[in-house]
Amino acid sequence: MFKIFHLRFSIFAFCLCAFLTTFNCRAEKWWSFQPPTRPEIPAVKNSSWPKTEIDNFILQKLEQKNLHPAKPADKRTLIRRATFDLIGLPPTPQEVQAFLKDNSTNAFAKVIDRLLASPHYGERWGRHWLDVVRYTDSQDSRDVGGQSDVAESWRYRDWVIRAFNTDLRYDRFIEQQIAGDVLPVEPPAEINTNAIIATGMYAIGNWGNGDADKDKILTDIADDQVDVTSKAFLGVTLACARCHDHKFDPLTQADYYGMAGIFFSSHILPKLTPKGQGENILRIPLISAAEQERRKAREDRVTKLEQQIEETIDTELKSQSDKLLPHVADYLGAVAQVSKPAVSPVSKPADVPNAVNARVLQLWRSYLGLADLRLLSKFVPNVLDKPGLHALRNAANADNPSAVANTTDHEIQFLTIKMPPHSVAVHPPPSGAVAVAWKCPATGKFTIKGHVTDADPNCGDGIAWKLSIRGKSEPLESGMISNGGEQPIHELNDVAINAGDFLELRIDPKAEYSCDTTLLQFEISDGKHAWKLQSDVLNDFASNPHSDTYGNTAVWHFYDLSNQPADPVISGSLLAKWRESTNQIEKTKLAIELQQALAAKTNATITNLLADLTNPRSIFWNPARSDTSAFSKQTCDEITALRTEADSIRKTALPQIEMANGLQEGGVPESPHAGVHDVKIHIRGRYDRLGDLVPRHFPKVLTSGEQPAITNGSGRLQLAQWVASDKNPLTARVMVNRIWQHHFGEGIVRTPNNFGKLGTPPTHPELLDYLATEFIKNDWSIKAMHRAIMLSATYQQSSIPDPATQKTDPDNLLLGHMNRQRLESESIRDSLLAAPGELDPALYGPSIRDLNTKRRTLYVMTIRSDRATYQSLFDAADPTAIVEKRLNSTVAPQSLFLLNNNFVMTRAAELAKRAAHQIPTSDRQRINWLYELLYSRPATNREIKLALNSFDKKQPSDVQWQQYCQVLLCANEFIYID
Questions:
Q1: Which of 148, 229, 719, 949 has its CA 20 to 30 A from that of 462?
Q2: In Å, what is the CA distance from 437 to each residue of 370, 631, 793, 811, 940?
Q3: Are 926 and 944 spatial neighbours (Cβ–Cβ below 8 Å)?
Q4: How many Å is the maximal CA-CA distance in the chain?
Q5: Residues in Cβ contact with 235 at an 8 Å cutoff, skipping those fewer than 6 apart
Q6: What whole-number distance in Å separates Cα of residue 949 and Cα of residue 912?
Q7: pLDDT tens readout for residues 362-414
Q8: DSSP label at 468?
Q9: C-alpha distances in angstroms, 132 versus 172, 231, 860?
Q10: Taking the model in full, what pTM does it have?
């Protein structure tokens, strides 16, 4: 039985092998894999119809079936068709009239040349190319413009527009996108910025950023780049061979990994991020290496000068430190005389020893937490135009640190923050803290309680808080809250507080400070009296410090602790004992003991203090580094000279470095694919199951003869040259087919991204080869191809077919008439803006997120994660896909948009105003003017009569005309082109 099974299996395997061999042989002879050859121009019976050689190919097939082409389109139809085709905008009435009056034989050629010279041509045809290369302005609405986003993709969009406007040779267009960063630079240029930007085609790929599997991310990026290269330029589906040999085309898995190795040896990421994080997209500085060196030398000089300044300050402060150590007891005695915080600077008391320097005395007070308070003194009423929302800022009016109060009886939401009724919040600075403190009116024992809550849960990483008596080492309580968190200040009973002491609630940021608005509830009582933060400060938030309800002044204080770290005095140390002692004799004794311990360096509790006093970059000396008033004249002169030079360099402002997203040589740095190398076949597409190593190469079926080995760089330069070669059997065919498709609605090959076995064969193969060879002959000029196509009788046919032709060829495969086409989403919106004269003609620049902008729709931001957009509603290209042809749906929401959306209604109102201004008196003439503007033709008598009869005389005139204009804008004739 086993032998019979084995025999049958062997016969099956032999037959399968024979079939696949035969199939592959046939596949290799597939029409698109053979070089295009220039065909003979077909002879036709009706020799008077062709205008160009293109027409002979079309007419020959019609005549073979005894069919006739459609009549020529009238001039109004023709100019409207051509204008939308080439610039995506309607012709003006003046342009239409000029064409109607031009009876020369080359009148239409002049129209074509004018349109091809328009800067809007590049916008129209650039958009067609952007469809193919899955263009997007942003990957994700949650991180627009962030490090993981393609924030510079608009530069690639602008490069594409300029390439079409300047008629960049298509072979150069290919080379710059595939290998712009490694193309030779022509002197005197040091860098080809345009070519680098062109490689942005690969940076805007769709490969699922955020996958935790970093090795899979690398394979997905390479797959996306192989896919877009093969489909966009070659019209083949090479990505189908990622997991196995192509099922239908002679493209092997080895071919796939031969090309994938080229992209594994290139990178669009600066490096891989840790697991769990999204990848950052590479940003390439658009300056030459020499300019980078010049800038670096400049920065290095400034850095060196700043280092010298710091070293000079170190020397000065070390000298002051040496003088300070023998007089520590004198300074502590002076501090004791002014131990309570003040709201204005304290000068040196008159009776302190001469050894005490006033500036150093202030350093001691700051170090001990007894420095003068920097109150939030700038009152800002009605923040962000929110009545009753008031803020306090520091004297410099910085956004942070700040305090904010909702004095109303309703919740106020601003930015991403929610403030409950009658609430108080504070926001810390980037470094240091913000504090609210209660100044004790009378000595006693008190109960303390409260609450801290994150008022901005949408972002940030939370805060740290500490409750203490200012000047004491041990906090009464402390804690942390995470983003969106809250925490009680547990009730503390019988807390002894002396009159004049500050009970301080300090709020510090964690790693990030920008989202740290923190709601505070703070209450103190002694059994007879109760002090509540909200009730005491909300009545007069503008004054700081604030009085309490018992008539005590300066009780509540909001102040700035920027750049002031937490208390450096260690609990239990000699310095802590000195600070907490209230007996003057004991304080003096402890001060002397502390000075002796510092001199002897034997007491373990003074180790930190000794380090702070002797290190010129310590917490103690840090405030003095920005104030040179107590420095020697020699030191001041040295610092002034160094700062003058540094400031002089900084004042010579350099232009901001422009950045681009793009592709660079070498695999992703610090990844398994760093550098340049071949890759192994991934069995079943899995990176963890590797087969044979495959040299980098191009698909063998598309190359003639032996390929030279890739030994220099990634191989992208060689790939670009091969794709752009006139010997490549696919490149020219694929592009002329795309051009033909956008003129006629369908390509000669109706699957523009797939010229393989599963693609649709060409309806006119000889015409396709003719166009491809003409394209190469005319220096790969896209504009020349437009002229050739549009000057043909085929293009200039009416969209109304001969009845017999329509019956025999209902799908218009033989092109016996022009296909009627609906405007694409961009042209619909642009025409809505053009009608009332509102369209902003400005070219280039970053995309705009607001649909209501007057810029062309090309500049309205496309976000890959956001599909509920105007563009999606009207069938714009899916930015996640390599789009060969847009869908054309007709759904109710499209009508609802045109009928109800404020954007459309506003355009109708503006159009009515424009019409009234143009034709102020005659309704009939105004209606006719609107028809000429919107449809490029005069209104018929019946249309004028219908319009006049439709007006409701009970409504104001401007309302009538607005409604009528909206009807005209909603008509099929406005959005369809014959």
A1: 148
A2: 13, 34, 87, 82, 81
A3: no
A4: 125
A5: 32, 730, 733, 734, 737, 749, 752, 753, 754, 755, 756, 759
A6: 18
A7: 888 888 877 778 899 999 999 888 999 999 998 888 888 999 999 999 999 98
A8: E
A9: 18, 8, 18
A10: 0.76
